[in-house]
Amino acid sequence: MFVKTLADILDTDAHVTGDAFESRRILLASDGLGYSFHDTVIKAGTTQHLHYKNHIEANYCIDGQGEVECVATGQVWPLGPGSMYVLDQHDAHIVRAETDMRLICIFTPALTGQETHDPDGSYAAPE
């Protein structure tokens, strides 16, 4: 057993920020669990085009308002506290945040914590 807190992650290499997001990567590949666990804030007024071709991702919204769009179908779902979206088919998607939106995210395979988005919105395949 081990215990981590958000405070353990802040201001470390596992605390990654970008123009549209802040990702606090709490569990990573180095933890040996086969998945990674993130506390992510999507910044208000931003739009992100993402396509995790090499990962499955589940996202549970715990705060804020926004929407997610499936690129293949154009279908849009509202997001708010208590809603979840799962990219079980490596779905290309667009996330729009009306307010700061806080998501709890799980990736499999696990991220190392040092990934950056490729131009198409994906992360490279794990080695």
From TrEMBL:
<dbReference type="GO" id="GO:0019491">
    <property type="term" value="P:ectoine biosynthetic process"/>
</dbReference>
<protein>
    <recommendedName>
        <fullName>L-ectoine synthase</fullName>
        <ecNumber>4.2.1.108</ecNumber>
    </recommendedName>
</protein>
<dbReference type="InterPro" id="IPR011051">
    <property type="entry name" value="RmlC_Cupin_sf"/>
</dbReference>
<dbReference type="Pfam" id="PF06339">
    <property type="entry name" value="Ectoine_synth"/>
</dbReference>
<comment type="pathway">
    <text>Amine and polyamine biosynthesis; ectoine biosynthesis; L-ectoine from L-aspartate 4-semialdehyde: step 3/3.</text>
</comment>
<comment type="function">
    <text>Catalyzes the circularization of gamma-N-acetyl-alpha,gamma-diaminobutyric acid (ADABA) to ectoine (1,4,5,6-tetrahydro-2-methyl-4-pyrimidine carboxylic acid), which is an excellent osmoprotectant.</text>
</comment>
<dbReference type="InterPro" id="IPR014710">
    <property type="entry name" value="RmlC-like_jellyroll"/>
</dbReference>
<dbReference type="GO" id="GO:0033990">
    <property type="term" value="F:ectoine synthase activity"/>
</dbReference>
<keyword id="KW-0456">Lyase</keyword>
<dbReference type="InterPro" id="IPR010462">
    <property type="entry name" value="Ectoine_synth"/>
</dbReference>
<comment type="similarity">
    <text>Belongs to the ectoine synthase family.</text>
</comment>
